[in-house]
Structure formats: structure tokens, C-alpha cells
Amino acid sequence: MPAGKPKYRRVILKISGEGFCRSGQSGIDQEQLQSIARQIADVVNLNVQTAVVVGGGNFIRGATIAQQTQLQPATAHYMGMLATVLNGLALQDTLEALDIATRLQSAINISAVCEPFIRRRCIRHLEKDRTVILSAGTGNPFVTTDTCAALRATEISADVLLKATKVDGVFDKDPVIHPDAKRFDRLTYDEVIDRRLKVMDVSAIDLCQQHRVPIVVFNLTEPGNMRRVVMGESVGTLVSD
Fold it and tell me: Could you tell me which residues are beta bridge partners of residue 50?
């Protein structure tokens, strides 16, 4: 690969809701939000078409709310999907303050603040160098934003799915609890599933495997990491065939 040329033409970034706040906290932390936006802007400025799927666990996690209350599970999941729109709006404003053109799309119709997700429109925005933020998951309860990211990556023909975390890739056990945890440089989809490694939901891994979408799991809290991944450097863990 020529020096200075990105490895990927079109990427989709998955950020969990927890990525918008500090560990153990909730809501949106301005410093975390700014850091995410700067990393995305660095990649967009390389002329890499970028879509972002946002989670909402920093506000509400549907499955958790359903267990803790008497709400219907489907209702709790819809609440979680709406929480992702809050993060999408915050990220949109922060990116535009960095002169990054954006569009916020939602799988649930909220016409006052979001476009509806339409595959062809999303692709057209990317082709016009607009960063597309994808919120509200798939619009269906009981489907995680991980699976949404895998689905959207397939729909828009992304070259790679970038799974942002707060650790340096995929480990054989929780590195926060176990200092001797071993990080994997590369894994196959089957290895992730067979070893029950907590990378993404099994349905998301399976979907990526079916359509041969590679996944790079990396630490988004490390400044410049997203750019390094896009430039083809060995960062985090690569999950592929």
C-alpha cells in the first residue's frame, strides 16, 4: 500500500453509549464527546467515507430497564433506541463545529431532527463526503446496535466495521480485572463465536462473516487510533476470515 494512502475507502464506526461518558458514569461527557469527534474528523479529512452507528447505553439500556421495571420489554427497547438519537444529535453538532458536513439518520421516524434511514440516500451522502450518523438501531426492539452496525455495514458496502471500545482490542479475559489477560492480534469469526469472546453479539459476527465484512476492535480513547486503523497500521484486533 502506498505511503499515506488509507487502506479503506468506506468505513462504519460503532460506538457504544458508554463511549460518550467516563467509566462508571452516565450522560454525555464533553471531553469524551470532543475526543470522539476529533478522531472521526481526522479520518474524514483523509477522504474516507465514514458512517457512525451510535448506542444509547449511557442514557438507557433497554434490556436493563425491562428487568428493573414493570415496563413491557418492547417499550424499554424503544426507549433505548430513542436514547441513541440523543447521542447522535450531540455528535452531529460537535462534528459540524469541526467543519465536518453531517447527516443524522434514524431508523425511527423523527422528522423534526433526523432524516429517515434510507439506504440509497445514506450512500449518496457518503459519496458527497458527508459523515452519516445512524441512530435508533434498526428501528426494531430486541435487536442490538452491534447487529445494527453489522447490518448497515453490509447494506452500504463498507470495507470494514470499526468497533470502538475502551480497551486495546479483544482479550482472552477481561483486561480490567485480569492484568495477565492476553490480547489477540487476529481472530477468525469462528474463533470469536466458539470461544464466546465478547466482541459483538453472535448475530452481528455471523452477519459480518456471511458478507465478509472484517471487524477491527480498537481503543477509541487512545488519540489517533482510528486514523491508524484506517491507514492500515496494526492496531487492536482484526476479526476476519
Answer: 11
In this prediction, residue 234 carries a pLDDT of: 93
Sign of CA dihedral 58, 13, 160, 233: negative
Domain with residues 10-240, CATH architecture: 3-Layer(aba) Sandwich (3.40)
For residue 158, the Cα-to-chain-centroid distance in whole angstroms is 13
Contacts of 28 (CB under 8 A, 6+ apart): 20, 21, 58, 86, 87, 90
Cell of 100: 465536518
How far, rounded to the nearest angstrom, does the alpha carbon of residue 24 sit from its chain's CA centroid?
20
- Report, as ranges of residue numbers, the positions in the chain whose pLDDT lies below 70: 1-3
The Cα 33–Cα 149 span in angstroms is 20
The per-residue pLDDT for 12 is 98
Predicted local distance difference test score (pLDDT) of residue 65: 86
Cβ count near 86 (within 10 Å): 19
C-alpha cell at 135: 441512530
For the full predicted model, state whether its pTM sits above 0.85. yes
Owner of C-alpha cell 463545529? 97
Nearby residues of 131 by Cβ (< 8 Å), 6 or more positions away = 40, 44, 50, 51, 52, 95, 100, 101, 102, 103
The pLDDT assigned to 1 comes to: 41
